[in-house]
Amino acid sequence: MTETPARDRTDPAAPYAELGRQLWAVGAINREMGRSLPHDCPPATLGLISVLSRKGEQRMGGLAELLGVDISVASRYAAHAVERGWVERTPDPADKRSRLLRVTASGEALLAELSLRYTDALARYLADWSAADVGHLNDLLFRLRTSFDSCRSRPAEPAD
């Protein structure tokens, strides 16, 4: 088992600095995992398809907000997914000038295949971890994500 790096226990910011380093390293793990994606499915496109699969059909503005990107960026991602048949655009019945984006059966199949690949890779890389350790990591990562979600939904503090 790998040992946790030594920490300066006198500096109250030290645990947060170490967490920052660990999260930076997680980004490298994500990039490595992303290399298993098909060449024509960059991570951004996969993110768009995944959001649409989870949240259901969306207008472009709502999708951009869910992705945390500018509408022009979301539009490029969507165009890429539409060209490959993973997402379709349909008229919005509530506003005929707008279009709704939704995942196609091909997009859902892609998500299922890539989810299986990702799960298999994690199982291989973490084969020496106990189920309890994996569960504990899941719990902590969920808690971390939830903390950041609550920060985004709070209004900004007024400046002095």
From TrEMBL:
Domain of life of the organism in this record? Answer: Bacteria
HTH marR-type domain segment(s): 16-146
What InterPro entries has UniProt attached to this entry? HTH_MarR-typ, MarR/SlyA-like, WH-like_DNA-bd_sf, WH_DNA-bd_sf
- Quote the protein name from its UniProt record: MarR family transcriptional regulator
